[in-house]
Amino acid sequence: MWEVKALLTKDSRGNCCIVSFDLIERDKLRRYIENPYLYSRVQHTQTLPQEQRGLTIPAEMSSLFPKSSILWQKKADRYVTFLLREEVTEGFPNNLHEHLSHIQESHRTGAIISRFLLCAQENGKTYDFYKTFVEII
Length: 137
Hints:
137 residues, alpha+beta, 8-stranded antiparallel beta sheet, 3 helices, 16% helix, globular
C-alpha cells in the first residue's frame, strides 16, 4: 500500500468550485464536451452514499450561478490524491473505501472530489477512472 505522507500535496489547482450540471444546460454541456475532466463528483466523508455530480468552474465565475447550484467550493489547501477505479456495472463497485480507510488511519478527512479521467476495458469489464482529491482537515 502507498504511504499517505507521500501523497499529501498542497493543492495547486487554484480556486475553483463545482456547480450542479444538467444535460439541458447548453453552456455547461458545451464546457463538458470541450473538456470531460471538468465533470466532477462531490461526496463527503460522513455521508459517502450521497453524491452529487457537477462541473468544475473557476471560483471567480461562481457569482454567475445561484448559490443553490454550488455543490462545493474550495476551502482546504491540503489533499490526498489517488486514482479511483469504478466498474461500470450495477452498483458501480469501486476502490474508494479502501483508499479512504487508509487515509483516515492518520488524517481527518472532509470533502471528496472525483474528476473524470477516462473509461477503459480490462479483462472484459468496463471501468471509469477518476482523479480523486480528499480534503485533509
